[in-house]
Structure formats: structure tokens, C-alpha cells
Amino acid sequence: LPIPIHLHPSRENVLVAGWGKTVVKGPASSTLQDVELRIVEPQVCSLFPAFDHNLQLCVGHPQSTKSAFKGDSGDPLLCAGGGPGHCLLSTVQCKAPAVFTWISHYRPWINEVLNEN
């Protein structure tokens, strides 16, 4: 999966989908949920000590607290416009904003582990 280089903060809409919780003390969703968010400036996620803008993408919504939530870790973030695999990431943080990791960075390691098994 190539790392997209033409993603623009605050202009690129992305879709997060998952079965995570929809309320703090509730169960995981029994139906697939999705929310449209935007790529935001990396500085917004600088409050997360381990955030690395070279390996991760900061995603949120400027007028909403909607985001990935508990139970959504590992769920995909999908970007339009670049064809399949243009923007495929996995969430590692479930707060607003959310942090997603570029899976393509780890693809050699993933392939190595898969080939060993």
C-alpha cells in the first residue's frame, strides 16, 4: 500500500467504520457504525506523547466530538479519491481527535510475520 502524499488537512474527508461503543458505559455496537471526519493538522494530535506525524495521521471533526471510540481500535480509516488502498490506516487512539497509523509503513514486517506462519 503506497503512502498517500496528497492528503490535505481540513480539506480531505475520510470515513471511519467500526463496531465500537456509541456511549461511554454501553456495549459495543451490534451494527456497523461509520462517521465522516477530516484530516486535521498534526499539531492537534501533539497532545498524545507517542504521536509521530511520519507514521500516523491525525483525524477529527472541527465542529463535533464525533470520532472513533472504545472498541474501534484496529478499525479502518478510508479515504476517497485514490483507488483501493490509497489511504488505509488503523486507529490507535479513541478520543477526539483520533490517531491512525499508516499500515503501509509496517507492511514489510507484516509480510515477514505472515510468511513465517
UniProtKB/TrEMBL annotation:
Residues 1-115 form the Peptidase S1 domain. GO terms for cellular component: cytoplasm; extracellular space. Keywords: Disulfide bond, Hydrolase, Protease, Serine protease, Signal, Zymogen. One of its GO terms (biological process) is proteolysis. GO terms for molecular function: serine-type endopeptidase activity. Gene3D superfamilies: Trypsin-like serine proteases. PANTHER family: CHYMASE, KALLIKREIN-RELATED. This is Peptidase S1 domain-containing protein. It comes from Muntiacus muntjak.
